[in-house]
Amino acid sequence: MSVFEPAAVDGAPGSDTPLDPAFFARPTLEVAPELLGAELVRGPVRLRIVEVEAYLPDDSACHARMGRTPRNAPMWGPPGHAYVYLCYGIHHLLNLVTERDGVPGAVLIRGAEVRAGHDIVRRRRGGRLDCIGPGKVAQALGLTTAFSGRALGDGRPDALTVVAGPRPDDIRCTPRIGIDYARPEHRAAPWRFITAPVRR
Asked: Hey, what domains does the chain have and what are their CATH numbers?
């Protein structure tokens, strides 16, 4: 069986209602906290989103700050697409594109918990299920930069879909992580949104 072939799940999946482009075509700070509790689905793997960071059009921590390049072009839309980049030449990081078409913005998926496809995630993650950390999320989903620019839920066998889930009631906001290069006001902005099981 192909890893992308539908299969009986070994977790407790949530909704199968995809979030459509209109959900993402809004200000990033509206979209980001509403992604907590939603699930990333790729083949039989399902991850519940528990940690995200918002990156805005006028944000000095955002990849768009240096202008449009072949690498970051997906950030300009359309909304509801994936933006995947390689960090430090090691980790692939998944972002979901937000804002209206032509305005750069995205939500970085920093952490998730496995809801289904545990065996596949273990194989991809070297025997581990921990997905708290953006590189771990993309690894669990089997994503690389080759996926960047693709529409979410594009109907292909290896599609990535974001489906609705119950919004947690314990959302916390903190400054984002690893953006020492940004301006002070952007380093301090509480644009990281987390819920259990994130503890830091």
From this structure: 27-165+172-194 (3.10.300.10)
